[in-house]
Sequence to fold (81 residues):
Amino acid sequence: MHDLKTAINSVGLLVSIIGVYLVYRFSPLNFDTIDGGAPDTDFDAIRRETSRRNRLVRVGAYMVLGGTFLQLGSNFLSSKP
Fold:
């Protein structure tokens, strides 16, 4: 059976990977088009979608930080022989 140090390190790595994916996926750099010239543009829908994307990027960044701290913290746990 694996020790607690390895388990925490693995969870931290997984959380970091998911966080990096969220930041990449919902980053403003990945917008396909920006609609603003058509008279029937729903600016409220664009605002809601932008707010949702920003929230997911923020969650992803916190996940990266949390996963990194879990990995760093696991280094200070004692290993069982």
Q: What stands out?
A: Residues 43-74 form the longest helix (32 residues). Helices lie at 4-25, 43-74. The CA atoms of residues 9 and 73 lie 8 Å apart.
